[in-house]
């Protein structure tokens, strides 16, 4: 039973459970994990950091200590939690992903930046938790679903912009 992929998200129950458990562990120490994740994201992809104007000019130590970074990490956590909590309610999940897409489309962020962030996130999970390959693959599958909904919605938003050009 737990191995049959559900048609909406293409995730099996086992994969959803693995992701839920891994995320629950991640959020239990999110104050540290969140800052560390964004710190790595910004160091690995300076082009992603460039979007965060409120963090301009901070050196590495100031960035790690920044309350703005902590606040942003908390916004991100709430949003990801809303996705994970709704893996069983695909209609709601799609709307939640559309909202995030719209908020980021306004900032000219592209699917490529999400793809980079997601790939780094999976690596990060493997670095900070004792997880098996099954769980990492479950994360990859979950984030691939999020990315595909987001990419489709970005195309729609772009087409709407073109229509109004
Ligand atoms: C699933 C992945 C992501 C989630 C859930 C997420 C979530 C959020 C949330 C909830 C906010 C605050 C609300 C808002 O202002 O819209 C936010 C702000 C922001 N996000 Fe994301 N985000 C994600 C990925 C990204 C990526 C890949 C970038 C890459 C550039 C990005 C850049 C930003 C920026 C620049 C802000 C504004 C920060 C500020 O000035 O306070 N986000 N994000």
TrEMBL record:
Belongs to the globin family. Residues 10-155 form the Globin domain. It comes from the Eukaryota. This is GLB3-like protein. CDD domains: Mb-like. It holds the Pfam family Globin. It comes from Mya arenaria (Soft-shell clam). Keywords: Heme, Iron, Metal-binding, Oxygen transport, Transport. The keyword Zinc does not apply. The keyword Iron applies. InterPro entries: Globin (IPR000971), Globin-like_OT (IPR050532), Globin-like_sf (IPR009050), Globin/Proto (IPR012292), Mb-like_M (IPR044399).
